[in-house]
Write a structure and sequence with these properties.
- Helices cover about 0% and strands about 50% of the residues.
- It is mostly beta strands and about 250 residues long.
- The chain folds into 2 domains: about 1-150, no CATH class; about 155-240, SH3 type barrels, CATH 2.30.30.
- The radius of gyration is 22 Å and the shape is elongated.
Length: about 250
């Protein structure tokens, strides 16, 4: 596929080209000279990115399909990023980031798997991550000098997941196991999971399901407005309506 991209608005932050073999003509470093960008990949996950006369090769873990997206993580650096994206299991997308600086293709970040990335050009890149029965957005700060992405750790993530209590369980006032009990939720109570803390790590005796997410804390709100905290391991088998996938 050959595509010529004409940008009349300099603040465009994302261009997606969905094709395994793609040629794009576009100014990606704001010097008023269009670059010839060619992206090719094969069914083994190997890919090649060529910009003008320079070439760089890469390897997706799976990459049963692949495409590129052109984004702008820092609207003030006069550089756009080319993201080589390979689709893998459950349509998770592996991402390799590149810039074209002074005639050279420069790697500037890697993300192993997500359901898409986005940026507002403020040096922050967000990726959508599926967590089993809900999704959250991980944020990364782009370092233009070191050409790298740094994960921004957050205490809580907002979610909005509905469920219904099937077996009674307790919700606590604070995020520790000996905290005061707010209420014991009764069957048929409709609840919303409002926030999640994914930072806790399970001890060996807590690893009932052999996954660390068992110890994640969830802020649970009832239909009557009562709120409290509960670890995943203490309610995952006691509610109905959670859609597990992946």
């Amino acid at each position: 596929m050959k595509l010529k991209v004409l940008l009349f608005l300099l603040f465009i932050l994302s261009v997606v080209i969905h094709a395994r073999d793609t040629t794009v003509v576009m100014d990606i470093n704001f010097d008023r000279i269009e670059e010839n960008i060619k992206f090719t990949s094969n069914e083994n996950g190997q890919f090649t990115l060529r910009i003008n006369e320079k070439t760089i090769n890469g390897q997706f873990v799976e990459g049963y399909d692949a495409f590129i997206e052109i984004i702008d993580m820092n609207r003030n650096d006069n550089l756009r990023e080319i993201v080589a994206m390979g689709l893998g299991s459950s349509d998770y997308t592996e991402c390799f980031f590149y810039q074209f600086v002074k005639g050279e293709i420069i790697p500037c970040g890697y993300l192993p798997g997500n359901f898409g990335v986005k940026t507002n050009g403020n040096k922050i890149l967000k990726e959508n991550i599926w967590m089993g029965f809900y999704s959250i957005e991980f944020a990364h700060r782009f370092d233009n000098e070191n050409k790298s992405l740094t994960f921004i750790k957050e205490d809580l993530y907002n979610i909005d997941v509905q469920a219904e209590v099937a077996v009674p369980f307790k919700i606590l006032k604070l995020r520790y196991d000996n905290s005061a009990v707010v209420e014991t939720l009764k069957p048929k109570t409709k609840i919303t999971l409002v926030n999640v803390d994914i930072n806790p790590k399970c001890s060996e005796e807590q690893m009932d399901y052999k996954f660390d997410d068992n110890c994640d804390w969830f802020l649970i709100k009832t239909e009557n407005g009562i709120q409290g905290w509960c670890r995943l391991k203490d309610f995952r088998d006691n509610v109905e309506g959670l859609i597990w996938a992946g």
